[in-house]
Write a structure and sequence with these properties.
Low-confidence stretches: 1-29
Oligomer: single chain
Strand order of the largest sheet: 1-4-5-6
Number of strands: 6
Radius of gyration: 19 Å
Order of helices and strands: HHEHHEHEHHEHHEHHHEH
Distance between the termini: 42 Å
Helix content: 25-40%
Number of helices: 13
Length: 385
């Protein structure tokens, strides 16, 4: 499967869904108070009087630079659903991305942190046409004027964090140096959030010439990613989201006939997820086993990584064990019945925020987005143990 082939499959899918309603079900609107539950409502707090000198003592207002790496989820592809207009349907809505979107009306990790530091920089804005980067096939490029410090690229795998023309770490390092007028690389505290693995596991069941994409490769390139970041980016907290079971989107999508039609036209978005029958069930079991293996690799590497006052890694299980098949249908985009919708981005942002402020022993892994926001006080620090 060529990257060009994937592009035209996306194009065909966009054409196929133009008749879909703006919402496939009432979904989230049926949940009383959900919109209020997703609206950030924590009070602002006065900045600390002292300068933090250790990554293990970071307060909310200490974060000056926010960054992200990942795939089409963090790039914001498809979140606004089908428009019946190919140009709009193939956009990445970077300014609303759950980890780093900085549009004025966004409910994202970046806008949450900006409540505590009005000088926060790095958030992505607006939207642009999707750029595809799929393992070792990557003709795409980032758009610094809108992506800012959101290095995510649609189709990306863990491999793409430190390899090829889509190398996300290199992109971030270059942007940090290009922005030395507003970023003090040596002194400013930086938060980098990561989620990647969906594209890796979507080809785990097939003999597909997209390499490298094995479980061993996933662990290997995560380790190299952290090593490279530690060497090149001082004063950095790396916030790593653990993978959820992508295969469950298949069962969720079966609740709409229109989704079944889309997946027949557009299986390339996740070849291992959307086959029917016994073969499909087998492939989805492989995906679920792979998700478990990826999360073990993330935890293993993070635990083994050397600690210092300038660099730390935390893993977040907030979405790891949630059962997506039971979620409202409007969790998924009407464009392709696969990517998260805008509401899903907001739910994920809340889950990640709450996990970030919760000690390891008390973290939840079941996507509890209806619980209250965890609101840091002037004494709160981000747990790194």
């Amino acid at each position: 499967m060529s990257i060009l082939g994937v592009f035209f499959c996306l194009l065909a899918g966009a054409l196929a869904v133009t008749a879909l309603p703006a919402r496939m079900s009432k979904g989230l609107d049926d949940v009383r108070g959900l919109r209020e539950a997703l609206s950030f409502n924590c009070p602002t707090i006065a900045p600390a009087n002292t300068t933090t000198t250790s990554v293990h003592r970071l307060h909310a207002g200490d974060i000056k630079v926010i960054m992200a790496m990942g795939d089409s989820i963090t790039a914001g592809f498809g979140m606004m659903g089908a428009h019946g207009n190919i140009e709009k349907d193939l956009l990445e809505y970077r300014g609303q991305s759950w980890l780093i979107g900085a549009d004025n009306d966004a409910q994202t990790l970046a806008t949450f942190f900006k409540n505590y530091n009005s000088h926060l920089v790095g958030g992505s804005v607006g939207e642009h046409i999707a750029e595809l980067c799929w393992g070792n096939i990557c003709p795409a490029k980032q758009h610094p004027e809108k992506d800012i410090l959101n290095a995510a690229m649609s189709g990306a795998m863990m491999y793409d964090f430190v390899n090829g023309p889509g190398n996300q770490v290199d992109y971030l390092v270059k942007q940090l140096h290009d922005k030395e007028d507003i970023i003090d690389i040596e002194q400013d505290w930086k938060l980098l959030s990561i989620l990647v693995g969906a594209n890796d596991m979507c080809v785990e069941c097939e003999d597909i010439p997209i390499e490298p994409s094995s479980i061993a490769d996933y662990e290997k390139y995560f380790r190299i990613t952290l090593q490279t970041l530690q060497a090149k980016v001082p004063r950095l907290l790396v916030n790593v989201g653990q993978m959820f079971n992508v295969s469950q989107i298949y069962k969720l999508s079966l609740r709409a006939k229109s989704c079944e039609n889309i997946h027949r036209l557009l299986p390339e978005e996740c070849l291992c997820a959307f086959k029917h029958g016994e073969e499909g069930d087998k492939h989805r079991r492989v995906m679920d086993q792979t998700a478990v293996a990826y999360n073990r690799a993330l935890e293993k590497v993070a635990a083994e990584f050397p600690r210092s006052d300038s660099f730390a890694v935390v893993t977040q299980p907030a979405m790891r064990d949630g059962n997506l098949s039971t979620f409202p249908l409007s969790f998924i985009s009407t464009l392709d019945c696969f990517h998260p919708s805008l509401e899903a981005h907001q739910m994920m942002a809340k889950a990640m925020w709450n996990g970030l402020w919760t000690p390891r022993a008390n973290k939840t892994s079941t996507f509890e987005y209806l619980v209250p926001f965890v609101c840091p006080t002037s004494e709160s620090i981000i747990p790194t143990d």
